[in-house]
Amino acid sequence: MKLKVLFVFLFAFTLCVKAQTSSSARDSIAAITQKDFLNMKQQLGITIDNRPGPSGDPTASNAANSDEDKVVPYTLPDPLIANNGKAITGQGDWQNVRRPQLVKLFEDEMYGHLPKDLPNVEWAVKHEKDTTAGPYPVTEILLKGTVDNSRYPQIQVEIELLIGLPKGTSEAIPLVTRFGSITWPFGPPPEEPKSYFISAYEPLWKQQLISKKWGYAILVPSSIQDDNGAGLTSGIIGLVNKGQYRKPGQWGALRAWAWGAGQAMDYFSTNPLIDESRIGIEGTSRYGKAALVTMAFDERFSLGFIGSSGAGGASLLRRNFGEMVENLASSGEYHWFCGNFIKYASVLTVEELPVDAHELVALCAPRPVFISVGSPLIEGNWVDGKGMFLAGVHASPVYKLLGKKGLNTNDFPPMGEALTSGEIAFRQHAGGHSTGPNWSTWLAWADRYWSR
């Protein structure tokens, strides 16, 4: 009995120590993040406090707007008007004039510029095993991408990438790359979010892909760049900067994760079992933002599946609905973007931002992109499903100019209705913060472009 009591005491004591250690680590990250945030504001010469963003808690006194009747009028920049005011009327003008202009504007003011001399990545297979996705045999390989750190050995970056291909594949097949997490080679796969299913009979995403004889990959963003401001002096950003603070125009975490996806694409091009012309990119929430940034800046990805990306992703920033610029440019989220973006929550306003989300979607043109969102009854209104739909609407003229189809309506569709007739697709499913209930719809749409 005494031993049992002692065991219970030791177990409780261990849990308490772990909780205190975890809390201490969080406090340390928050303190370092705040120091980095204030350093960036100092570099920018911003001496005033940022405007506070609204709360995601609908019961809070400063709750984010979720009422369409309270959306104030706004004017969007025209993606088909060049910086000199001239209209873009031809495909060549888009590709040679306007697209480079938009890329630069997004780099200057929002996502940041890539360093000119990025280090090489050397990929190596670490493990390989046979497994299954539902009833389908799969061969999975775990790769490590070691980033050359010879210029600053104090920081190591090792990119984690898992690839699953139908067992016995003998020809190059399509593959979807997801931003996510892996538990290889030990332990069971992570439990899917409960909102993942339409019903208990909906197969998981891997099984759906393998059933079509397509492959999957999971790229781990945290192995590229930490998801906090404290990590900006480490990861790939810190490695290139030799452990020093960023400059205002340098890349943030979203662009760094997208760079990591580009490094994975470099590997895919060397694997004879993967068709590099049929590679998709998928992600949800902040990883949905990263997936859209990847599609916009890296034209090698042929299809996008952008899940609940919200503000900073596919949702119009000028719409005062859900998450706002003030949230994105706060000390909790500024690390996703370049330092210059902080200006738009302090000394400037969102109306002065020279770009908006519809132009980020337009940078994907003419490649097909599917915008996914969950039910506001489950997911909430923070990500602004209608704002993402409208970004697709206002990107559609660019697709039309390039001989493709955008969205075929300006009216926000009922939940569950799939707008999949064009190269911009949209569907609001009945689940939560996940692409899960849209996978079968996305696959049917993607099959039009990848089937051979």
TrEMBL record:
Q: Does the keyword Signal apply?
A: yes
Provide an example Pfam family for this protein.
GCE_fung
- What positions does the domain 4-O-methyl-glucuronoyl methylesterase-like occupy? 245-403
Any idea which GO molecular function terms this record carries?
carboxylic ester hydrolase activity
> Which keywords, in A-to-Z order, does the entry hold?
Hydrolase, Serine esterase, Signal
- In which domain of life is the source organism classified? Bacteria
Question: Which parts of this chain are annotated as the region Disordered?
Answer: 47-69
| The keyword Signal is annotated on this UniProt entry | yes
Q: Which residues form the signal peptide?
A: 1-19
This protein's name: Acetylxylan esterase
